[in-house]
## 1
Amino acid sequence: MNGSATQKRALVINTAFIGDVVLTVPLFSLLAENGWTVDALVIPRAAGLLDGHPHLNRVIVYDKHREPGLGKLLSLGRELRGRYDAAIVPHPSARSAILARLTRTPVRIGYQPPKKPYSHPFTNRKLRPRFTFWRFLYTHLVEYGLSRQEGLRICDLGAALGLGYKSAPIGTLAVTEPDSRCIENRLGGISRPLVVLFPGSVWASKRYPEASYIEVGRRLVKEGRVGIVVCGSAEEEGVCAKVTTGIPGALGLIDLTLGELKALIKVGELVVTNDSAPLHLAAVLGTPVVAVYGPTTPVLGFRPPEGHPQRLVFHRRLECQPCRLSPPKACPLGHHRCMLDLDPELVIEACHDLLGEVGL
């Protein structure tokens, strides 16, 4: 390798969604604890998430949507050439594999397909990642564990560098004092315990119905004397406004920076969310979480690590669930029963049960 034994340098490339980047932070910890200097390459939207991260040397921003062409990839590859001993690609992506190759890093690590035969439900090929031609761009391949928790699945890539672990690596994210003060000011005198609802998702098919979130919030206020904050991105303003209006005393926050979002989740006593980024943020920041799954289920691996206070709610009696690894824009069968038939009572019970478990 290019670096000395004490100055090994790794580039972790993950240009997927914010939630995918959050799931990568245990790998940062694993590398740093084993003497590696770590740089992360992410999309602009995820960069603020990693501000002040204790295990990162540098965050490199690549706007693949604004500059999608090969020219940008070539120039970025030249810029990063010769800087690293290893490049790790946790998210199966042809673009990321090509970029890793363009850096001419001597060790390039990605996934290979799991061994056959596949167990249920992975006999359905729509639930398995696509491992196609770009595999040849890697020098080292690690088997993709189909039902393994995603944070551990990503840490498995460290095996190509001889990195193992007896206990699961713990990810972390930095929360600054200014962001914490800002959130405390925004919350004002809201009741505690504080429950933060995230009714939105990038994927419309992953959204639990607004009416169901309203029912959950109303019941928690009535039965648990909790404070409710409804939060989401600017794109989710409409959804959040409807849910906020439907819950007496709820506070809507849809204009937070990523730093403020981390601070809000950190100060909350409970997060209720769809299978989206706030689920994984809550897990990394140590906040108990109730997650509602629709077209996906926890078996795909996108769940909190074992031992984190959690309740995972999904239908459990639908043969079509889960339907795809990457959720469809709309239900392929046209009924969306995985969300529409999921009784809010199950979510409410999960919230009360989890609050009781953590002593609230």
## 2
Amino acid sequence: MIAFIVISAVLCAAIVFYGVVVWITERKREVPQDDWMGQAVATKGMRAKDIDAVSKKQTVMKILVQVGLYVFLVFMAIIVLFPFYWMLISSLKSQSEYNASIPTYWPKQFHWENYKYLFVNVAEDGMFIASDFDLKTLFLNTVLVGVVSTLLSLIVTVLAAYAFARLEFKGKNALFAALLATMMLPGELFTITNYVTVSSFGWITDKVGIFTALVVPFLVSVFYIYLLRQNFMQIPNELYLAAKVDGTSDLKYLWKVMIPLSAPTLISITILKMMGAWNSYIWPNLIGGNIFQLVTVGLRSASFQNAAGETLFPIQMAAVVLVTLPLLLVFIFLRKYIMRGVSRSGIKG
């Protein structure tokens, strides 16, 4: 299988490379249609059939290049999608079929009960399954942390972006530059210091404290502030001046004008923040322990085993499918909002 993938990749790359080289070579020889009669005179009577032959050859090469390009893209798409396909079909296999020496690329029989075992924890034959994996609680904890952290982060981001975009105060540009400089530091660099801080506050001893520690350290995102600030700066300043002449306060102008005009960017920030909360693992695993777990930590630490100690990989794959499904649906149905919000932000300012 690996040899087939490597050979196919090499062939596709060779086709694309050959097509590009030939297309560039022919491009240099191409005669503009508006000027081909003058060129024919200059080259002492180049015949029309020669021009037709060159044109046909160029057309054929363009078609070959397009075919090679699409073959390459399809091949790369298969490489990207194959792990998801394998995860899905593995979740529907029996344990014996999964452990077979010769893998099957389609289940011989669909075992939908693998998903049921994630919620009942006991199989029909009495084997105990995933005693430490409470999927409903993990989903609830993750959604709660994601929603609360997203709402609070949006408030902080909107106020900070508005201050940097519209308000005038000493040191504004220097402070904004300092904030941008922090983006060059990896987030993992602050893990230990954040842990020491929340420990000194006593936030890692109970569920409420752990919930607070999961939300508070990540309320400020310099990237989201920068993204929204660039969007705010694209809104004409004349609107702000007219609102101030009418006696409108800054908060009212922000709520009535700036936020509605920046809705695509705010939607993008909301989606990205929720996805970040759903995928977070290192920090929740460090401070949550067994007291308050998110879905990523619970999935990683769960032992999907029967009474004989055998790991039940199909049921584990079923859990991975359920954890991946929300983010996959978000990306499929809301990707246009993400791209629209990012593209509207621009680089002005």
